[in-house]
Amino acid sequence: MLNKLTIKEAHQGLINKDFSCQELTESYIKEIKRKDKDINAFITTTFDLAKKQAENIDEKIKQGEKLKLLTGIPVSIKDCFCVKGVQATAGSNILRGYIPPFNATSVKKIKDQGAIILGKVNTDEFTMGASTETSAFGVTKNPLDLKRVSGGSSGGSAASVASAMASYSLATDTGGSIRQPAAFCGVVGLKVTYGRVSRYGVMSMASSLDTIGTITKTIEDSAIVLKEIAGYDKYDSTTPKVKVDDYLDELRGNIKGLKIGIPKEYFVKGLNPKIKENVLEAAKKLESLGCEIIDVSLPHTKYAIAVYYIIVPSEVSSNMARYDGIRYGYSTTNDKNEIAKNLMDVYTKSRAKGFGDEVKRRIMIGTYALSAGYYDAYYKKAMQVRTLIKKDFDDVFEKIDALIAPVTPNIAFKIGEKTDDPLQMYLEDIFTAPINLAGVPSLAVPFGETKKMPLSVQIIGKHFDEKTILKIGNKLKNLV
Ligand code: GLN
After folding, report:
1. Do 188 and 216 touch, CB atoms closer than 8 A?
2. Residue 123, by phi and psi: left (phi above 0), alpha (psi -120 to 50) or beta?
3. What residues does 74 pair with on adjacent strands?
4. pTM beyond 0.85
5. Are 90 and 79 in contact (CB under 8 A)?
6. Domain boundaries, the chain
7. Which residues' Cβ are closer than 6 Å to ligand 1?
8. Catalytic residue among 150, 153, 157, 314
9. For residue 175, how far is its CA from the centre of ligand 1 (angstroms)?
């Protein structure tokens, strides 16, 4: 079962010539053909491309070329990333058939290392959602229980890794989209500091919150991929020239004496008692490993969902303006069944037909929140409260090294359970959205289980201190 190997193990196997890159790639292709009919993680598969890439890598191995850690490792990529020459839909009908002419920076970086791209995976439409149920390509089912959602928006990424249909996945997190599906599927999800990884070539949802990260089988694998995709990019002005750590090396460091805070506001009514118990269990374990556990307060947490669901739609309403039926994707001008009488008609009809309900809902809310009479009351107020939420984190991080908290209020919910009630769906983000508002990094680590479904804990760190949360997570998993 080559497709069960971690990145590190597969790398070692390729070096030792235990198997070829073509065999490794074929094991994933076989698994996708076997399982994805039921799971529906992939929107587009690129098997021919993958096989060709694998052949090239085998040639390089034969010639004795030194392999980098990601060389020859098969990956799935969330469908809001641009991969040159491969359809990118962002889960939307409006981009069906859109073929980007360039690579996202993160994609380019792994491609330059010789990554094998298996295909593009499902997401809620333009990453707006928490279950992949807003995708125009159907829901991605949870590999551990096909009646349940895989989470979202990066449900395709999490499901593909959890079911061994990809070694790792590149994904995005604006309010929880990496951590929540990782938690639902029992895999590792890393949301990085805002600006740590370039957003260039990834379709924007809410630009002041969007981050690019990873879903992997192990924390070691997260460390490996982050090292390769992090850093300054001249095409994204929000990536500072902060040193990229050797995350893999740092995993071996000590966690004795680290101060870890438990924020009391994250243990609210509505949190599944099993999840609460599990987080406290994890904290106890860290204490036994020499960490100091401290009760802390992030007093403005209760405003986070309200603030997030003003700021995100406001930025969405602006970011979605580019899908106008002229520049990319679906247009009434190419549709025999739609007659547009004038330019305005092309805009409105293309957008009405191309966008799904959740995107339209956010465009309307955002346009309203930004409109002349309401800007001060909604958008400006939300931005002021966002500053207070961020300050909560700044204050607490003066005294502690990391926080431990739940990822989600509950385990993976059933398909269809929340689709009629957007507010219920928004509450999925209660423990993840504040972290995006503050811009700090956070890791969802599989830990424990209930009723055969995985549980997860969230380890939140200081700006650009991914190394510490990865190290804590790894120790929590009993690994060096
Ligand atoms: N569920 C959240 C939302 O719908 C988060 C999405 C994300 O992180 N992309 O906005």
Report:
1. yes
2. beta
3. 116
4. yes
5. yes
6. 2-250
7. 127-130, 153, 172-177, 205, 312, 428-429
8. 153
9. 5
**Residue whose pair of structure tokens reads 């439409």 in the numeric block:** 125
Task: Please name the amino acid found at residue 309.
Answer: Y
> Ligand 1 centroid vs 150 CA: distance in angstroms?
14
Report the nearest atom of ligand 1 relative to the CA of 127: 9
**Under 8 Å CB-to-CB from 229, ≥6 apart: which residues?**
105, 106, 109, 110, 170, 197, 198, 212, 214
Task: Please state the φ and ψ torsions of residue 142, each to the nearest 5 degrees.
Answer: -75, 120
Task: Indicate the residue type of 244.
Answer: V
Task: Give residue-wise pLDDT tens across range 360-394.
Answer: 999 999 999 999 999 999 999 999 999 999 999 99
CB 117 within 8 A of CB 83: yes
**Are the CB atoms for 52 and 85 separated by under 8 Å?**
no
H helix intervals, 259-396: 273-288, 304-319, 343-354, 357-370, 381-396
> Span 2-250: which CATH code?
3.90.1300.10
Tens-place pLDDT, residues 64-82: 999 999 999 999 999 999 9
The one catalytic residue in 78, 111, 191, 467 is: 78
Distance CA 36, CA 8 (A): 25
Cα 157 off chain centre by: 8
Tokens of 443: 């890791």
Helix (H, G, I), strand (E, B) or coil at 32: helix
**What is the β-pairing status of strands 259-263 and 402-406?**
parallel
Contact 460, 442 (CB under 8 A): yes
Largest CA distance in the chain: 71
Question: What is the DSSP pairing of strand 141-142 with strand 116-121?
Answer: unpaired
